[in-house]
């Protein structure tokens, strides 16, 4: 018996222009009759969303609040994060919102933020790593790490480590990392994960996103059977503030096909809310509510060796102190 839905999904997946744009979202959501994410009930669950003040993070925080979750908005600006909390509370009627002000590129701030969060919340049911942007110029954090790697690789690694016991105690729980389809163009790098004087923002971003997807699999391998489910997801090409600011030429050409922010956030929200498939697997890379391969190109697959994976895990572990 031919599974025509699978055939259609596969046909859409092959060319990235159909898979990553609103075309893929529209066709797949109708074929599979997706349950709208705002119809889930998350009352009693606590969800932490980093990068929650705009774009995908803001959209996720608002939908999660609408579903009844206690949402912890994690942002680096107190004014913007508190404004986002207040606006979401007004629009959803959900008063169980909290704020943690912490820069995900700075380890000391992450430790302080994690301590505040753990002191105020008995549960952490879902942790969503969404913070991070494409930096056009090379910048360093206080410890000398390139800012993209600091905020999107080392920062999430540290925060996950700090919250892991609480996530275990709240099982079944989930850690969701918002990656990017841009990682498909990057091999796995360790020694030169942080670009130097030849810095190119888009390439550095892709390197960090590849590392995120690899670490997601490694977290699942290092902590099996503990009730914590690790997922990475890419949103497709969505019309976010980050795309508008960092990739204006791309946006100008592709704007009619770009997904809305809500469409881009859909799969991450589904992974956070649904008690079916997201709790039946671990370590997967998801797009449009289906697990996807982590390689599309031969040269990136050849770079993904067990030795290089172990080196990435060891390097991240050596850079943090829990």
TrEMBL record:
Pfam families: adh_short (PF00106). Residues 45-240 form the Ketoreductase domain. Transmembrane segments: none annotated. Signal peptide: none annotated. InterPro entries: KR_dom (IPR057326), NAD(P)-bd_dom_sf (IPR036291), SDR_fam (IPR002347), SDR_member_12 (IPR052992). This is Unannotated protein. It comes from freshwater metagenome.
């Amino acid at each position: 018996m031919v599974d025509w839905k699978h055939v259609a999904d596969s046909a859409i997946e092959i060319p990235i222009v159909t898979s990553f744009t609103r075309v893929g979202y529209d066709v797949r959501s109708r074929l599979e009759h997706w349950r709208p994410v705002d119809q889930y009930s998350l009352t009693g669950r606590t969800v932490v969303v980093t990068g929650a003040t705009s774009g995908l993070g803001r959209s996720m925080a608002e939908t999660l609040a609408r579903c009844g979750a206690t949402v912890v908005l994690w942002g680096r600006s107190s004014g913007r994060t508190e404004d986002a909390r207040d606006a979401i509370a007004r629009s959803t009627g959900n008063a169980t919102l909290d704020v943690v002000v912490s820069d995900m590129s700075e380890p000391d701030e992450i430790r302080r933020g994690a301590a505040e969060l753990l002191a105020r919340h008995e549960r952490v049911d879902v942790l969503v790593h969404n913070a991070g942007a494409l930096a056009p110029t090379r910048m360093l954090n206080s410890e000398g790490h390139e800012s993209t790697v600091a905020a999107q690789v080392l920062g999430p690694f540290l925060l996950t480590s700090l919250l892991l016991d609480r996530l275990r105690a709240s099982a079944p729980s989930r850690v969701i990392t918002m990656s990017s389809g841009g990682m498909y163009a990057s091999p796995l790098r360790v020694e030169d994960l942080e670009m130097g004087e030849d810095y190119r923002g888009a390439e550095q971003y892709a390197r960090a996103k590849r590392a995120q997807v690899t670490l997601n699999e490694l977290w699942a391998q290092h902590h099996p059977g503990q009730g914590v489910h690790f997922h990475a997801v890419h949103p497709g090409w969505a019309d976010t503030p980050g795309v508008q600011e960092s990739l204006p030429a791309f946006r100008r050409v592709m704007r009619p096909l770009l997904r809305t922010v809500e469409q881009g956030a859909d799969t991450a929200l589904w992974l956070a809310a649904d008690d079916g498939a997201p709790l039946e697997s671990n370590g997967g890379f998801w797009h449009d509510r289906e697990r996807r391969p982590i390689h599309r190109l031969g040269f990136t697959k050849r770079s993904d060796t067990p030795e290089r994976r172990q080196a990435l895990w060891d390097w991240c572990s050596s850079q943090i102190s829990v």
